[in-house]
Amino acid sequence: MKKTNYFIKYLLSTLIIASLFLSCNDDIFDIENTNEPDAARALAQAEDVENLITGAFRSFFGDAVGFEAIFPNLIADQTSTTNASSGFWDYSKENNKIAINNHPTNQNPFAYTGPFSDHNANIQTVNSILKSIADGKKYEISNTDMTNKFKAICLATRGLSMGILGLLYDKGYVVTEDSDLTTLELKPYGDLVDQAILDIDEAIKVINSLDSATMFTLHANVDLSSELLVKVLNSFAAKFILSEARSSQEASSIDYSKIIAYATKGITTDFKPVALENVFYSFLQDWSTYTLADGAAYLPTDIKIPHLMDKTGDYPDRYPTDSKTILGEVETDDERISYFGYTKAFGFLRESRGRWLFTNYKNNRFYSDNDRNETGIPVDIFHKSELDYILAEAYLMTNQLDKAKELLDNSPRVTIGKLPLVNAEASEIRDALFYEYSIELDLASTIGTHWFFMRRHDLLQKGTPLHYPVPATELELISVDFYTFGGDSSEGTATGDKSWR
């Protein structure tokens, strides 16, 4: 018998939490032993189950722009820092820069432990409900059958959570309501993405079978229509399939026809539901736009951004190490330079930790007086421009260059930035996509978006991890040796042969 793993532990905690929803019901006092909650009681009331589902569904989107989303931006040179708080600096170093400390003694494991635990928690929550439904349980609220609605949102949540795990980690658990939790084994990332697509497809099928007026709650101030949810799911399906590749070689074997099929049924406007204070907001933007008293950002914009925007060819890709040098403002024809603010102040950047990591820029686009945790502020989950770039990349990879060009020419690159139209040439379109991901999607997408783009185009610096390892605390539970990626590791680590620098 294998050691009890994460899912069994989490199932118990889920049932305990679920039982708390019943605490106002007189029947709760008939329980002989309240320390031994059972699944039947925890999943008995439709209103309580709806609360569990809504919490798991919201958790996916909240985590997608949560605190842990900061670290992949450091990995992908979107954000820079020498601040050791929370382990930020560990993910910003260069020159064999990031060897993930995957050991139980790591005092700052949040970057790679948080997504693993959070998204697996979502999966186990909805699996318990899907199992109940599979066993014949029907859920009604105010004499309305909610069973298929619950099934749809559970499948959507599992698919979304499974998909992001498959993009972030080298392996993970493919677990459904039918899985034996005592015999689970880690599966490669491709299996997770495959299961995610199956779940998303099934979720869309069930949603389309419901009344078209059905609404799905994200939080108290946001309900999603069936039509919008289907578009969001199609968009994420396209993103998951495209982002799975760990190298340009893997990317060459992707079925781009599937990406095109999903993307053309995706969102038609930005998906940015409003925040609800202390419940749902973008930690990523909140931390990454925080401005210090001297005018510098707490987590400043990496020098990659002004380097790419520079029209003179003179702006460096690493900050000068001469302590007397302070770079001036970049010269650019891109009017989206207004997205970023220039400052001579260096804030928390420390020369002793690598002056080459310095920068004079910060993200102003999503700055809101040092507080994104306010009801009504948009939470940027999936911009229409990102979906256009996904589709353009699929057209690029299938040699439909005119279609890729059309998408780029009608994107913010031209409509806001006022940059020249691109030529229908593969190299120019590829460069334009990298540019747009770096500028237009800075802090405007979900966890790992820039990291995933750069790894599938071999643009990451030498020594950068291609994905996270399964956290050491989980490996301990299943008696698997610790391992890691990045630094001098020969596996799961970028060679830097085609690095963006």
Describe this protein's structure.
It is a single chain. Helix 8 packs antiparallel against helix 10 (256-263) and helix 14 (401-409) packs parallel to helix 16. Residues 6-36 have low confidence and may be disordered. Strand 5 (215-219) and strand 6 (222-225) form a beta hairpin. Among the domains are: 6-263, Serine Threonine Protein Phosphatase 5, Tetratricopeptide repeat (Alpha Horseshoe), CATH 1.25.40; 290-363, no CATH class. 42% of the residues lie in helices and 5% in strands. It has helices spanning 6-20, 39-42, 46-64, 70-75, 110-134, 147-168, 189-209, 226-243, 248-251, 256-263, 283-288, 304-309, 384-397, 401-409, 412-415, 426-439, 449-456, 472-477; strands spanning 140-141, 144-145, 171-172, 187-188, 215-219, 222-225, 340-342, 361-363. It contains 18 helices and 8 strands. With 501 residues, it is mostly helical. The strands form 4 sheets. It has a two-stranded antiparallel sheet. It is globular.
Give the overall shape: globular
Tell me the series of helices and strands, N- to C-terminal: HHHHHEEHEEHEEHHHHHEEHHHHHH
Helical content band: 40-55%
CATH architectural grouping of the domain at 6-263: Alpha Horseshoe
Radius of gyration: 23 Å
Q: Give me the secondary-structure category.
A: mainly alpha
| Amino- and carboxy-terminal Cα gap | 50 Å
Could you list the spans in which at least 5 consecutive residues all have pLDDT below 50?
A: 6-36
Spatial ordering of strands, largest sheet: 1-2
CATH class of the domain at 6-263: Mainly Alpha
Number of helices: 18
DSSP strand content? under 5%
Main β sheet profile: 2 strands, antiparallel
